[in-house]
Amino acid sequence: MRDVLFCLRRLFAIAWALDRRRFATGATLLLLGAVATPVVGLAAGGVVDGVDAGAPRSATAWGVTLAVALAGELMLAHFAHLYYFELAELTEERLNRDLVRLVNGSAHLDRSDDPAHADRVDLLRQDVLQMRETVQSGLQLGATAVQVLLTAAVLVTLSPWFLLLIAAAVVPVVAGRRAETQFQETREAQSTTTRGVRHLRRLATSPGSQKEIRLSGGGDYLLRRQRDLLGGYRSAMARADRRYALRRGLGQLAFGVAYVGAVVWAFELVRQGRASAGDVVLTVVLATQLATQMATGIELLGTVHRAAAGLRRFAALEAEQTAEALPTAGLPPAAATDRGLRLEGLRFRYPGADEDTLRGIDLDLPGGTSVAVVGENGAGKSTLLKLLTGLYPPTGGRILVGGTDLAEVAPDAWRERTAALHQDFARVELGLRESVGIGHLPAGFAHEAVGAALDRARADGLGEQVGLDGVLGTGYADGRDLSGGQWQAVGFARTLMRPDPLLLVLDEPGSALDALAEQRLVDAYQETAREVAATVGGVTVFVTHRLSTVQLADHIVVLEGGRVVEQGTHGQLLVAGGRYADLWGLQARAYAR
Ligand SMILES: Nc1ncnc2c1ncn2[C@@H]1O[C@H](COP(=O)(O)OP(=O)(O)OP(=O)(O)O)[C@@H](O)[C@H]1O
Predict the structure, then answer these.
(1) For ligand 1, atom 7, which residue shows the shortest CA distance?
(2) ipTM, 2 dp
């Protein structure tokens, strides 16, 4: 019951804050409709007693009451629905917004990389979809509770033994709750499977991956994988469903026996002369109503109870995020720095991983320089960039920005001074202006600012082709899909919206570009970096596998197994004849062939 009260308190508080008038009117109409239900029983008994006693006036008065109560029961519930339906929609929307804020509100990305957290967020997305129904169910549950209480009060005035009927009515409630909890546990245990199925479905149907799936003929394989996953899921859920139905059925059976006993007892009271024929009708009507009310109540309780589990998940996430919320306090980063960045004994281990990805990195990156980070797949290059941009806190060592430990700098303020294009950049399917302008909201999507960012990213041609208000992506009827390189250029322009960044980060610009386009992109970046270096002394760090691009950097860092194994200029590293020289030789031979 605690769960149910918690859920109702929370949802009603949101609904009340969103629209008091609608909430109060909907609830009042529902309650009036609830009162009408037991009145139907009283009036039906009154009619029978009136007729039995040969009192036509009384019978007529009760008849009119019966008609009004029946009409009220139907009409009031209908009008109430008009009010609370919209309110429920508003509540669901609000929770959706809260979820987006929560998922994006933590200081670091650690949680997003945790599969258990991903499962929880996935469940929460489904939970929020149910909240609309829950608000309605919660209000109806309140009205049903009033109905049950009134019905019970009337029955008890006939005979205290009818209390047993009410006690029996609790059995299906308890059994239903148990069944619901078990069902929920099974559902949660299956969340990894459902997430997997959804991923496979998206993979097989989304425009982004469909080309590859079709060409590789992998569709059948994905379907088989889905079938296998679903096979296990369905049998687990079918078992849970059967257990659920059995527990609830047994609960209902207990009430059914008590119901028959109550009707028999009413006839016995008449036989003893302690009750009238009208009382028997009243008992039959009310006991039937009680059965329906309890069944409805269990159904509604189930919905609210299910939602309570979701709201608890929500509250837990909220509490965790509040504890880890982006601290607003902290030092501001230096307005300008020629000391650049310094990494001291930097170590990092991903949450849940068995070993460190970065194993003690010491680097000096003076302000105004461009730094290329190279190394084999998995060397830790992208991880290093994530730490520099503050997406993760180091698990050891520190990063100094202009001499100040990054851990002491306000994360928000640091983010405002970094511009980053990651390997898995976002394809923001909105208008070109928004897709670029979202990189720096204070600029207010202004034509000049967005146009300048597109120019700097050398994507002005795209601006002319699509138009600043042209819609990107196939998610819209009038949207236009872009090539991988064009999407990257939009992402690049987005990063260049940031004014005066102290750190510019570019992770594998060549992943979607040909060599020439990558060179243009890096040139554009270098140019921006030079401008920034001249004004604030920013550092540019880029990761690429193309050494033709790397050679232009002021400083080259070679990572291997999370450690710096070499560093220097292109010339110095070639002379040193180490790892970099080997890689250079390999790529030069490949080009010469
Ligand atoms: N979110 C994560 N959780 C756990 N381990 C991770 C995560 N991201 C990366 N790793 C691991 O950290 C190591 C370094 O990954 P990283 O992406 O930094 O390498 P990289 O040098 O950028 O590789 P690539 O050239 O392939 O992009 C890899 O072994 C990878 O499996």
Answers:
(1) 350
(2) 0.97
